[in-house]
């Protein structure tokens, strides 16, 4: 999935339906975290829990389990809103996985305060962060998003 995205995100992602963008955004989050999880870092365990919930959301999405997906979304929303500052600060972290996680999960908060942080993350040097920020912006479906 990462290799496919690496060659197509910049040009074609804006033309894809929002539900496909959602699936791909979370897929990048999960694949990136799984492939790099053996690298020790100093990230807060809340990011690991957010990534676990994001992976569960993706599974529910793929299996079309809308009730379970809504429950996971509610859990992520509460987690992100409860530690909103931690997740927005995570976008500026030197740890790649923290930025990837923050960008991919902030949209679940549906908090409009996240929009400027996510827009700024579109300039992150790491493609997974940029893709996850796009996912979060699409997931929020906020009319003020450019």
Fold and architecture overview:
- This protein has 146 residues and is mainly alpha-helical.
- The protein has eight helices and no strands.
- The model is unreliable at 1-18 and 30-40 (pLDDT under 50).
List the main descriptive attributes of the protein structure presented here.
single chain; 146 residues; mainly alpha; 8 helices; disordered N terminus
The major sheet is characterized as: none
Secondary structural class: mainly alpha
Report the principal-axis shape.
globular
**How many individual helices?**
8
- Give the ordered list of helices and strands: HHHHHHHH
The total strand number stands at: 0
Residue stretches low in confidence (pLDDT < 50, at least 5 long) are 1-18, 30-40
Compact overview of the structure:
The chain is an all-alpha fold and 146 residues long.
Show the helix and strand layout:
Layout: H1 2-12, H2 18-36, H3 45-62, H4 66-82, H5 84-90, H6 96-105, H7 114-121, H8 127-140
Helix pairs in contact: 2-3, 2-6, 2-8, 3-4, 3-6, 4-5, 5-6, 6-8, 7-8
């Amino acid at each position: 999935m990462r290799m496919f995205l690496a060659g197509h995100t910049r040009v074609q992602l804006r033309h894809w339906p929002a539900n496909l963008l959602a699936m791909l955004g979370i897929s990048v989050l999960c694949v990136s975290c799984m492939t790099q999880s053996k690298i020790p870092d100093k990230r807060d365990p809340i990011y690991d829990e957010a990534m676990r919930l994001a992976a569960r959301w993706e599974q529910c999405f793929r299996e079309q389990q809308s009730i379970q997906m809504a429950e996971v979304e509610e859990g992520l929303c509460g987690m992100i809103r409860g530690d909103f500052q931690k997740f927005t600060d995570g976008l500026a972290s030197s740890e790649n996985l923290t930025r990837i996680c923050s960008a991919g999960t902030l949209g679940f908060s549906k908090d409009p305060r996240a929009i400027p942080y996510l827009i700024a993350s579109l300039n992150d040097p790491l493609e997974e962060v940029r893709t996850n920020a796009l996912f979060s912006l699409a997931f929020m479906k906020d009319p003020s998003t450019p």
